[in-house]
Amino acid sequence: MHDYPEKTCDIDRLVRHPKLVAAALAGEKTQQRRDGLYAYPGERFILEGVEFEVTGVERQRIGDMTDADARAEGYPDLAAYKDLILRMHSGMEWNEDGLVWLHCFKRRLPE
Known about the structure:
Sulfate adenylyltransferase, PUA-like_sf, kinase, four-stranded antiparallel beta sheet, transferase, single chain, Fructose-1-phosphate kinase
């Protein structure tokens, strides 16, 4: 069992942007990086009536992201991900050593 800190935000805020919700529903998005911890492994959340489960959570350096990670975030590549993040957060600089929480998730099949 992992010893995670207290969550900084509610799991329902993990995936919010309509384009990212659509990407998750289409199976194109399976990861979400956040500055804070939004969920623990095993927790579930619902997007437009579809249930997802968090399969893993880990601390990661933003500089360790790859193009494959960016695609799992719902973006075509790392350059597109980085560009959007910097446009969304005015004045932010891309810090390769900055730490984020990587939340991995999958769509749950009906039981």
